[in-house]
Design a protein that fits this description.
The chain has nine helices and two strands; from the N terminus they run ααααααββααα. It is mainly alpha-helical.
Length: 199
């Protein structure tokens, strides 16, 4: 989990550095209404997370809803967060909010959208089930193709770029995970994909 915290800290830095997009929305002077969770401060988010209060779920739900809405209004976008999980969002927000406690969650959400643009899926992709038992989860076929391609460029994978989760892909992922000091599960989890696919 330490690796995931480090990755999310890096993502928080990227969020802080991202400029808020100049989308034409709301009234001519750029004003628009924000629902209650979006008006909450980072400070309130951190407290709710620490206290494990019901507000934490509302705040995280607001972020996820914002990203889902962005899938519709962002150009050339099918899924802005094709491999990020709610747990990853929670850690990214916590790391960002520690350095900007007065910032409103709505502003953080827009910065998150800007930060995720380079790794979004532009078009629809089928889902493929990977793993076994409790670790079994769906992954976009397009993400598996991106993973194969990235591992191919690193000389870790020699198979076809076909979006299939195969034994050679699992072995290549394990090798990459060992080199990145991650648990060598051979699964395309969030921490692995963050290190492998982000620009």
């Amino acid at each position: 989990m330490g690796s995931m915290n480090k990755l999310c800290a890096a993502a928080a830095v990227a969020i802080a550095a991202a400029a808020i997009g100049a989308a034409a929305a709301g009234t001519p002077d750029g004003r628009f209404a924000v629902t209650e969770p979006g008006r909450a401060s980072c400070e309130a988010y951190l407290k709710a997370r620490t206290d494990r209060s019901p507000a934490f779920g509302l705040y995280l739900g607001f972020i996820q809803g914002y990203v889902t809405a962005a899938n519709r209004y962002e150009p050339d976008t099918f899924d802005l967060a094709p491999w990020q999980t709610p747990q990853a969002f929670a850690l990214i927000l916590a790391n960002h909010c520690q350095s900007a406690p007065k910032e409103r969650l709505a502003a953080v959400a827009q910065k998150l959208v800007v930060t995720m643009r380079p790794t979004r899926l532009a078009e629809f992709s089928d889902l493929v089930l990977v793993g076994e038992g409790k670790s079994r989860r769906p992954v976009y076929k397009a993400v598996l193709s991106q993973t194969q391609n990235a591992l191919l460029k690193k000389g870790l994978y020699q198979g076809p770029v076909d979006g299939r989760y195969s034994p050679p892909l699992k072995v290549a992922l394990q090798e990459f995970q060992r080199s990145a000091k991650l648990q060598p599960t051979g699964l395309p989890d969030t921490a692995t994909l963050w290190l492998l696919l982000r620009p």
